[in-house]
Records
---
Amino acid sequence: MSHNILILPGDGIGPEIIDEAVKVLNALKAEGSLDMELQFAKLGGSAYDAEGSPYPESTQKLAKAADAILLGAVGGPQYDKLDRPLRPERGLLAIRTDLELFANLRPAILYEELANASSLKPEIVANLDLMIVRELTGGIYFGQPRGIEVSEDGERFGYNTLVYKESEIERIGRVAFDIAMKRGKRLCSVDKANVLEATELWREVMERIGKEYPEVELSHLYVDNAAMQLVLKPKQFDVMVTTNMFGDILSDQASMLTGSIGMLPSASMNASKQGLYEPSHGSAPDIAGQSIANPLATILSAAMMLRYSLEQGELADRIEAAVKQVLANGLRTADIYEEGTRKVSTTEMGDAVVAALAR
């Protein structure tokens, strides 16, 4: 069966890192291991420049028809003064909503070769293997009402609404419990139930679902304590599940335990296992066009795409092994470079992964 894959290069370093991931996918196709067809479209700032919308109708049609989507990154300072609905980030939020991509999977895995790149002591983070499951289409980022207004006394005020339906909490909870069953059977739910009623409901629903998964050890942490524990003893966690905003913050924090956010992939999936796969980092416009960006997170996102949406787990294993081999060979982009290793460009790193894949 041929897989229909939509490629969204995006903005900033997006096109550069996407090129390297596509190079890896094409290598698998060329050897006959992967039957796929690639289509390309625009999202974010590039879409606004071309069509006046960060998520144009042309992209919407292709996205809905795709088996899976691979995204580079969106955003850039040139778009900061646009009306909020036209900014690149709104395109990303829109495609998540349009495709009902409610489950964001953010692994934080420390490669042995990069232990010294972490800001924490190697013994604290060695062999870290953590999965953060973030609810992606609800919560304060989407809640209504929201806005900036002027009060009766003339002072401006901004407001956002944190809302979660029980059904939204239940579906992300089941995803997290299912993932925990396939890993270490430990799930930590992160909330702020002591002060936020929406997350008080979150905790109640997680407790109820947990009764259906007696093999999974369920624990709870307030988000402030969870942030502290991630730095203090990160290896105590197996799977974490949390709200949209808390997950946004904690997953970026967890990424730096591994040495570089440039190493971390992510997946955003719906109930049909259609997924949007992207590196956890942003568009890094300050280094765009210099061929110094790290493409490994995007290449590993392609591996996640093969595993979770296209049911090609063996090919995903091969890509991940190729990345590990390249790191073992001492190749590093600027973000993970250290003395004694060899600094390479974005394209050289992609070429090295393709070469390791062939071996």
---
Amino acid sequence: GGFGAVRIGKQYSATFLNAVAADPGGATAATGALYLAPMVGYNGSEAPLRQDQGIQYDLPTFVDGLKLTVTKVFGGKNSALTNASSGTETNGVKTGDGTGFAISYTSGPLYLGYATDSAVNQGINFGTTDAETPAPDTIIAASPTSKNKLNTLTATYNLGMAKLGYNTTKMSVGSEALSTNMISVNVPLGAASVFLSSSSGKVTSGSTLGAVNLSGLQYGVNYGLSKRTVAYIHAGKLDAQFSTTKKISNYGIGIHHSF
């Protein structure tokens, strides 16, 4: 209504919604969309991709195309968390409390968005030496009282014959950080569309494997079966370079329906 909009409960974070706006693959989890790496792996939870016990408030529209969103997240109390690096347990830590802010502007074919979330760290089990999953798991998180900060900046422009997208995302816990960049293009072909996205990423500090450089590629086809139902075939690959190079590739076939 005129007061804006309020959403309460488990929901997608503003940082994720801003980042996914540049992903023509729609976050269907095919390897290669590296902006998702900073948003998963937090002690096995989805945060901050989705936030539990969250309240989001969209302010009333003061300027056409301008949207402002404020988020408050109420965390829970963990009975025990284990730091994979030291093996020590931290009992009764209340993690996940956080705040967020998002601003976006839409004008015709142009979309610009910035979102930030900050929460009490809940990922103190980072620090694994599993070389198959070198990021973000190899980021050794700081103490559970450290702030976990996530920032996303996105721009898209629809040329008609193609839609271009750009996103940069950075997650940091204390002095440790994981940053990613993505460019994308989506070309409509009647009921179908084909897309390609290219990503790069870097663990700037805190990795048990030393410096980690990431590169990703994702591509696929979306086919509209109806206004709200899309069939898709997506594929992607990820290269992680540290003391050695690991290559991961996968694909997905599915149908997506928006209720």
---
Amino acid sequence: SVGDRRVEALGRRLRVEALFEVGDLRGAEEEVTRFGSTASRLGRSEYSWYPSLWRASLALARGDLRAHVRTREVLDGHVAGGAGANASLLAFVHWGTVAFDLVDPAEARSCLDVIDTLGPVEDVQLDISTALLQVRAGDVESAASGADRLVPRALGADLDSEWAPMMLQL
């Protein structure tokens, strides 16, 4: 109502996330369409990729793998087109989730290849995700070799918004 499209886009993004969290996929899909309209009016690349990410997630939630492949191709196009670091990061998280959920060894190996390009990063959450990806890729021994060290590090991590998901992965 204040006429600021960026504020509207933020509100719509938060609404999409909330609708996902409560499992209202139909409501989320409707809000994704509204967000897409707002993003189009803004005409900025940092907003344009969100709908394809959310539509890929909606397709997975519904078990529609064909739709997921189509929407993922659109998302990959946004990332390749330079939509920004946030788009690349969230697309990567999406791909990792696919590797976890579908037990897709090729996808897991692809994600591990991306992690390898980061170089040494001291982050327990990344280390836990890496171990899970190793398991999904079929390299259980590598994942297990460091698992004992992950538990105390995870228990000592900050109790922030990422702690509970990290503990679930662990």
---
Amino acid sequence: YNPLLLSSPAALGGVIVRDEPSYSEFAGCKRAKELLEEFLPSDLLYHGNLFPDYATQEQLYNRGTGNPALPGEGYEYARYIDDYIEIFRPRVLSYDYYPMVGEDGYIREGYFGNMSVIRNRAAEAEIPFWVYIQTCSFNASVRVPDEGEIGWLVNTSLAYGAKGIQYFTYCLPNDDGEVFRGAMVDREGNKTPIYDYVQRVNGQIAAVDEILMCSFSEGVIVTGSTPCPVPEGDIATAYTERIEIEAGHVLTGCFDHRGNPVYYAVNNSIAEPDRAVFSLEGQKGYYIVDGEKREFENRVEILLEEGQGVLIVPEG
């Protein structure tokens, strides 16, 4: 209990109940939420952030403590998500996935697969999903992302339908079992180059959120190559007849915005730019790139830098 929380409730948006809880902690998280609800405002967000799918079954079930014992049939990731939703009843489904590993541009292959599970479970529960964006390294096998990689992480998340973007981390943590590098602000409070990377991509988020926050994700279209497999069930087949895309490597999120189609496309490469052409015969509207709004008629032709995103809004 902290009386300061009650003295300035307008400054309190929510409570982080547990970061990366295991199944064995779900009931305790629920009870903590119930206790907090007794003396805090009722409209607060009680937040939990889930493990990625590369966590071990022991981490997912008992956080590696061995208590309770792992079920004989094991404990799969999809069940972990389902149990969390059923027990904790979250208002948003949040998870982290840090795919920039090694030093040679490698991306964990399960990136879109994990996002697919989260996206689908969130849709079934009729709640939004949030992601964490990697801005730092915390061990020797994880690299500090560059600007194109941070843009790719943010923009692929938006294309997949994420409604919340979180960053790990803002300030560089002290080393305590893990060795940290990167982040937006160093331990002396100085802005790093990553601060500017995030600021630029946040400008794009601010410019497109009025549309994307009010749109329902219908799936994605994969054009050309992709650094990670996209689950076949996520392909928006109904939209492939509405828009023609020519590109070397573009991922296009397809959305229903109040009954009308809109598209959020991203250069699906962290290594090279891509000149993409989006043909929408007989239609005109606007697109937003780098936070700037521009008009189009019949087609959008644009050079997308590594990881860069563009919102395309047909209006007739």
